[in-house]
């Protein structure tokens, strides 16, 4: 064990285009593993949890004991679950899997059972303030190689809508990173009735322009009540969506029963979930079609694999969360898992900025609509300390919504 005992564990916070929290674990023999602990808009909470409460527990532990370490960190804290705890555990878990695969001399997916497919179908993020702009964005994504497209659009009468790239943002493209580098979160407006009137017309126009074969996705971003979500799902049925994502806040898992009763539009849920307990009713009663959790926020590869194996019993597939608030380390971990599991569905993919790619050097590739994690031993990601040192942390917050009467609403 002496060579695989953990010698150091270091929390790295950098901001190459946006904030990331990375855990670097090094064994006595000098084998290094990386894990992603980024929690968008609350990054320092996870950095502190790791530095103050987890790192001291890792020194001297055998890096090979992934399952034992996972159970130790989950159960010994007593206060279980939640995004901060589970992101911290995920960072440790992924770093240890990275080390184990490097020691084995294999890409990580080989240790997860080997490849179940040749490539990983990914979807891109098209958006526009009006239909011509949206059509241009879809064509651009098709030219870039995407073969599945998420469609987001501005809503008449609403000033700013999540996921529309052309809207102003302190960080550039709005769908690249909506978190604003500012001391307080930005306030946006929302009108659900206007949204429900507008979105079906958008998808009708997109289908008329691009035909019936192109897989189309849409993100409701938790803003509808169950009955509103049911209405939208039913109204979108003629346009054959690949999925409707986060149609209603799903902390109340029973709410999805009502949605399911009224529409056959496939449903994807879970990017804000952290454990299998968040999914228990949704999976057992087959109230969703795709699991949307991220490796980074759900306790790592060990935990998310269990959730997806549970989902597979009910013919529910994966749709792992993968925007740019998942670092390239977290993205690589998702791709290794995607390649290995049988019930893969689709992978979200947003390209990171060139600055981010200078800090995180990756082996994964994207071509003709498909991702692949590469065949380097481990995750296939290295961290450039010199590049990271040029980009210190900057406070940033995600926006929030208010209705016209001033009521705070789900963003």
UniProtKB/TrEMBL annotation:
InterPro entries attached to this UniProt entry: D-mannonate_dehydratase-like (IPR034589), DgoD-like (IPR034593), Enolase-like_C_sf (IPR036849), Enolase-like_N (IPR029017), Enolase_C-like (IPR029065), Mandel_Rmase/mucon_lact_enz_CS (IPR018110), Mandelate_racemase_C (IPR013342), Mandelate_racemase_N_dom (IPR013341)
Domain Mandelate racemase/muconate lactonizing enzyme C-terminal: 132-266
One matching Pfam family: MR_MLE_N
Annotated protein name in UniProt: Starvation-sensing protein RspA
Source organism of the structure: Cellulomonas phragmiteti
């Amino acid at each position: 064990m002496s060579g695989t005992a953990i010698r150091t564990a270091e929390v790295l916070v950098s901001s190459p285009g946006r904030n990331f929290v990375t855990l670097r674990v090094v064994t006595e023999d000098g084998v290094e593993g990386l894990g992603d602990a980024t929690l968008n808009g609350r990054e320092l909470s996870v950095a502190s949890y790791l530095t103050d409460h987890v790192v001291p527990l890792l020194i001297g532990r055998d890096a090979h004991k992934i399952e034992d370490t996972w159970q130790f960190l989950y159960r010994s804290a007593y206060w279980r679950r939640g995004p901060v705890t589970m992101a911290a555990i995920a960072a440790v878990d992924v770093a240890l899997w990275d080390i184990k695969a490097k020691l084995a001399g294999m890409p990580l997916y080989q240790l997860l059972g080997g490849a179940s497919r040749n490539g990983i179908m990914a979807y891109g993020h098209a958006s526009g303030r009006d239909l011509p702009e949206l059509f241009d964005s879809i064509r651009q994504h098709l030219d870039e190689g995407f073969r599945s497209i998420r469609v987001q659009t501005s809503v008449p009468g609403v000033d700013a809508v999540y996921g529309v790239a052309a809207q102003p943002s302190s960080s550039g493209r709005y769908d690249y990173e909506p978190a604003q580098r500012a001391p307080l979160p930005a306030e946006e407006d929302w009108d659900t009735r206007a949204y429900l009137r507008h979105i079906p017309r958008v998808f009708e126009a997109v289908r008329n322009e691009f035909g019936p074969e192109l897989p189309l996705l849409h993100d409701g971003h938790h803003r509808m009540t169950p009955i509103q979500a049911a209405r939208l799902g039913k109204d979108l049925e003629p346009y054959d969506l690949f999925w409707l994502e986060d149609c209603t806040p799903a902390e109340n898992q029973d709410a999805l029963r009502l949605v399911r009763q009224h529409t056959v539009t496939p449903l994807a849920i879970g990017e804000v979930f952290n454990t299998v307990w968040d999914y228990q009713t949704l999976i057992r009663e087959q109230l969703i079609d795709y699991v949307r959790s991220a490796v980074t926020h759900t306790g790592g590869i060990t935990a998310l694999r269990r959730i997806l194996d549970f989902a597979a019993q009910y013919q529910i597939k994966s749709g792992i969360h993968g925007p740019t608030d998942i670092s390239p380390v977290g993205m690589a971990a998702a791709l290794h898992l995607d390649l290995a599991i049988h019930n893969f569905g689709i992978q979200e993919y947003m390209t990171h900025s060139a600055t981010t790619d200078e800090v995180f050097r990756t082996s994964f590739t994207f071509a003709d609509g498909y991702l692949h994690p590469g065949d380097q031993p481990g995750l296939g990601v290295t961290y450039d300390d010199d590049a990271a040192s040029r980009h210190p942390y900057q406070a940033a917050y995600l926006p929030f919504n208010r209705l016209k009467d001033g009521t705070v609403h789900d963003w």
